[in-house]
Structures are given as C-alpha cells and as structure tokens.
Design a protein that fits this description.
This protein folds into 2 domains: 53 residues, no CATH class; 182 residues, no CATH class. 9% of the residues lie in helices and 35% in strands. A hairpin with a 5-residue loop joins β2 and β3. The radius of gyration is 48 Å and the shape is rod-shaped. The chain is mostly beta strands and 312 residues long.
Length: 312
Amino acid sequence: MRKHFAFPALLLAVLLLAACGKHEHEWEDATCTEPETCAVCGETRGEALGHRWKGGGCEEPEICARCGESGGEAPGHNWQPATCTEPETCARCGETRGEALGHDAPPADYWTAGVCSRCGEEIAPLLTPDFVSYGLDAQLVELGKSYGLKTLCYENEAYSTVGKASFTAHETTPGDGDKLEIRDGYVWHIVRAEIVFDDDNAYNYGMIPGVCFESYYDIRELDDSSVYDEQTGVTRFTVTWHGVAYDCRFFRESSYLGWSDHSNTFVCTFYVQLPDGYDGFVVGFRNHGVPWPEGAYTFELDNSDTLYYRLK
C-alpha cells in the first residue's frame, strides 16, 4: 500500500517558487558605496548614492554627510611667503599668519625716489626743488648770454637803472692750496660775470647791483646754515646731497672798471667750494632796491628783476 504524505499548502508554494528561482525581493536602502540590495538573494538595483563630502580644510579632512566616513588626511596649509603688503597666506584656504613685511625704501630726496628694495615699487617720488616749487626757475639764465638787470641808483633812490648782465665763464678746479683750499671730495666752481651800465641814470646817480647765492634744491637749509666771516669774507654753509651733509664755502671778488665813454662795468667773480658732482648751487644778481627783511627767504621777495645762474 502506498503511503501519501500531505505537505502544508504554504510550504509547498515556497518550495515551488524557490525551485523555479522566483521570490519577492526585500530591498535594503542604497548606501554611499552600495546600491539597493535584496536581503534575500543579494540582487542589486540602481547605483550607490556616493559620498556627500562636506567641511574639511587644510587642517581637517572632509566628512561624508551621509555616512560620516572621513575623506582621508587633511592636506595641511600651503603657505605663500609674506610680501610687503600681505602676510604669509595659505594658497588653499586663504588663512594668514604673521604680518606683512612692509616696504623697505629709503626716504626720497631730490635725486633719488624712494623705491622699495623688496618689491621695486616707488613709495615716494623725487622731492620737488625749491626753485621749481616757488617759480624761481623762470629767472635762471644761460652762460654767455646778456640779460637786462634793473637795480637801484645808490645816490638817489628815486631812480633806477638797467644794466646788461651776463655770466661769462664757469670753470672748476680742485683748488690751489692757497686762496682755494683743497679738500677731498670737493671742487671749486669759479664763475665770472659782469654788468655793463651805460644809461643816464647810472651815469648821474650811480648804481648798486645786489649779489646773491642760493640753493636750487633746499633754500632754507642753505640760508639757515650760512655763517659769514667778516674777517675773511667767506661764507660757510651746508648742503645735503644723497643723504650726506657737506660743509661748503663761498666768497666773491667784485669791482667797477670805471667810467669810460659813458659806460661803466661791474665785474664779479664767484668762488664756491661744493661736493664734487653737486649741481644745486645758484649765484645771481638782484635789484638792490627790493627790500630784504631780516630772516626772510628769497622766495618771499619780489624776484621779477633777479637773474640766477645755476652751477651744474
């Protein structure tokens, strides 16, 4: 007699489904690294979500916002050197440390602009010479040319005269060890000039031209430092050239040649000891009738009749 076994209906259905490879998937959620996966058979569908990195920086690694996984090691700062205007700066994150170096530039003077030795930027432009600032350069004359010079008649100040002035020669020499002292780094400038007077006012009432000397660059420095020695007739003064102060000398010799054919010539020789190469000394003639108050500078006067010759 055959024996028959009865299987529960549900178990039979499961076995039949398994036998034919079919079942109902139980999907587990996708992760950053895995797609959705069936918990029963391991089948997948779709794609992994991928990490969603956030945060991080030079000193902290990135962190996945989904799974919390670290994105590796922090790269560290990538510092760029400090400059004159910027501190040391990380090229990755922009963080800074320390301070900018600041410019390293000498003060500007009349010959050299203030240029930074680190970056080459011009920090301060050349200083403007006083003769330019005060418009006195308009009164500068050239060697060998003749110019009209108005000045006072000394016997009757109600009258003035106009002479023909010229700077006739300019030479330099180290000195002669006698009248012209020899000093290392200095040269003597010898400038010869004359004024010819031949009008009636000069003939009848005399004439008295004013003689002057100035600094083309810094009028106050020269004037304030000038000391006149009455015994020797020498004026000592200071000029500053490329940051160095120089002790300089000035004196003059002048006379009238005397009247001849209704003409008289005032001759003057200027002697100036300056640092070799210096180009900022000025000699000249002025209208003696223009008052020069005690302590006043030449740029405070009326210089419309003044003639200046620059030693350069």
